[in-house]
Design brief:
Blueprint: H1 3-17, H2 23-29, H3 34-45, H4 47-68
Helix pairs in contact: 1-4, 3-4
């Protein structure tokens, strides 16, 4: 878990339950099944836990992609060439 991801977890957990302990976040990192992550978050954090779980899973997916070098970094869209219409002389 990157320091940035851990900081995000700490901030979110502090907001959700008043405790910035990231032990649960480290445990959630060990779970492969996204539904297990959602279930644990719902049981531990209540109704807001599902929202945390979805955000956590998305951030974990992106972090794993960055670590493995497979993250898709948005690429700029090439500018389309404007059609040049030559004026006709009368």
């Amino acid at each position: 878990m990157s320091p940035e991801f851990e900081d995000w977890c700490k901030k979110e957990l502090r907001w959700l339950n008043g405790n910035g302990d990231v032990t649960i976040a480290h445990f959630l990192m060990s779970l492969d099944n996204p539904q297990d992550v959602r279930d644990y978050c719902g049981a531990y954090l209540g109704a807001k836990g599902r929202e945390f779980a979805d955000d956590f899973l998305e951030r974990r997916r992106l972090e794993h992609g960055m670590i493995r070098g497979t993250a898709k970094v948005p690429q700029p869209v090439p500018a389309q060439k404007a059609s040049v219409v030559k004026g006709k002389k009368k």
